[in-house]
Structure formats: C-alpha cells, structure tokens
C-alpha cells in the first residue's frame, strides 16, 4: 500500500481525492447485496462515473465461481490494465475483490473501502487476497497490496450486532499477540454499545501494519497474525460443510483463540490465570459454538491443510504470556483434538 489507511469521517472525501489523482481509464465498483444497499449510496457523491457490480453476500460466495463473474464483468466492460476497482464490503468482498484485481490482466489497481469491523481492523489491511476452495478457507490467493484503504467507521452503524461481534475477535487477537495493556482494557467492554470504534480501529490497524511491514509475505513475524486461526479456520471450514450450522469468521476465531490459548498453557507458555483471563474476555462476547465430541476428528483434520504448515507439520501461533505471540510452534493432530475437547467440555 502506498499510503497508510485513512481512518475517520474524512475517508469518503479522501477516496474522492485519490480517484481524481489516480485518473483510471475506467472505474469499477464491487459491492455485495448488503453493502450495495447500506453503504454504496453514502459514497455515491464521492465517486466519479463508474460501473457497479453487486455480488451475493456471504462466505459461501467467496469462490472461484464468483471470481469468474467479476472477471467476466470486467472483460465485458473492456477494462484495461489502467482501470481501477473499488471494493466496498466486508472480508469476502475485500479478499475476493483484491484477488480478482490482482489477477485480471496480471493486475489492475484496487482500492479497499471496508465496511465491517472485521474488514476494517484486519482483512482490508496487509495485502492478503484470496477465495475459499473445496471447503478450505482462503486456499487460493496472492499477496497484493491495494492502492489505498479508506476506513469510514460510520459504516459500522449499518451492521447487525452479530457482525460487530465477529470483527471484535480480531481486536482481541491483536491485543493478545502484541499489547497486554490493550487486552487488559477489553475486560467488560460491551461490543453492542460502543458509540465510536475509531480509536480501536486505529490501534488494531497500527499493530497489523507494524507486523506486515516487517514481513509482507508471511515468512516470519507475520505468522503472529494467525493466532486463533489454525483451529478457528478448521472449525469454520468444517461447519461450512454443514448446512444451517455455518458460523461467522470471527466467531470461529474466538473459539480458536481459546483452543490455542489452552495449548499455550499446556506447554507452560501461558499461566492458568492468564488462560482464565482470556476465557473471561471471550466469554463476555461470544457464545459457545456447538459441535459434538464425535465431530472433533473431522474438524481437526482441516488443520492439516493450514497454510502455515510445512510438510506434515502443523505450524501454529501460540502465546508466551498475554501480549506476546510466538509463531512456528509445531503441534500434533492429537493436540488439536485435545484443544477441541477442552473447548467442547469446559471453555465457555
């Protein structure tokens, strides 16, 4: 990304300024059915002439089939390599739109306008793009920084409480891996009653940007950002195969945070008191994800496809105390199953 994300009420006007300076040959806007209804109209006054494509909302549409729809649309409207794509949406639109832009004609410029808390604190920052494939989260994708990101916290007013809670899981994660004092401030926070998320967004974005700057392509420290995701993605991926039982990404990450915190405690990296503290913060916001003990084997199997793995080794990020993540921690399938058993029996 050429410039830091613009965060605050000035974001729409800053978006308009960038689009004037970028002078694309053609401007394209991608939204989903929710953001086309709730967010796109608020940006219309700041957008020059453009074409709009609306895709279906939901993780189940984060697929190569939807990418083909986007690529066909760009082709039909004769988008050349000097075109620019503005992605207005949450994690699905951010990831999928960025991937489509990065691969269309070997790459056109892309601008992110994240509209959910999850996208604003995490998905839109760092240049990870991708789609799900054959049931595996973000299995196909590339690293490609957007031209710019514009974060307008007022869009969060359009979200149902469940979507806010989903994004909050990434806020918890950032504090746990990098800022113990910030985690201490999360005790008792009422997600549904926050009047202004701007400071929280700025804090999470700063943590992520600092880590990504050190390691853009995830060969080292960037793996810290995957805390909660090895087991969280396994839970999310499995439940995507169970119609009617799908969970939000952040809900699965919150479960993964508890499982991987428990593994940290099992290795004496995290004290029993710290594990209790983490469970307390998660418990305040997230309900327990329901799965049977008989399903733990099937869920754990998804962890063998985690992108941090090397050969047959499951590489996980754990905690060496609250506020300090440690990456490249080899864990076994048996440990994943044990962590899921802990969550199933005692975590919440």
UniProtKB/TrEMBL annotation:
Any Gene Ontology CC annotation: cytoplasm
InterPro entries documented for this protein: Dehydroquinate_synthase (IPR050071), DHQ_synth_AroB (IPR016037), DHQ_synth_fam (IPR030963), DHQS/DOIS_N (IPR030960), DHQS_C (IPR056179)
Entry EC number(s): 4.2.3.4
Source organism superkingdom: Bacteria
An example molecular function term from Gene Ontology annotations: nucleotide binding
Cited SUPFAM superfamilies: Dehydroquinate synthase-like
Keyword Nucleotide-binding: yes
Enzyme class, spelled out: lyase
One annotated GO biological process: chorismate biosynthetic process
Stretches assigned to the 3-dehydroquinate synthase N-terminal domain: 53-165
Domain 3-dehydroquinate synthase C-terminal: 167-309
Keywords of this entry: Cobalt, Lyase, Metal-binding, NAD, Nucleotide-binding, Zinc
Cofactor(s) essential for the protein: NAD(+); Co(2+); Zn(2+)
Coiled-coil segments: none
Family matches, as Pfam families: DHQ_synthase, DHQS_C
NCBIfam families noted in UniProt: aroB (TIGR01357)
Physiological role: Catalyzes the conversion of 3-deoxy-D-arabino-heptulosonate 7-phosphate (DAHP) to dehydroquinate (DHQ).
Stated name of the protein: 3-dehydroquinate synthase
Organism field: Hymenobacter ginkgonis
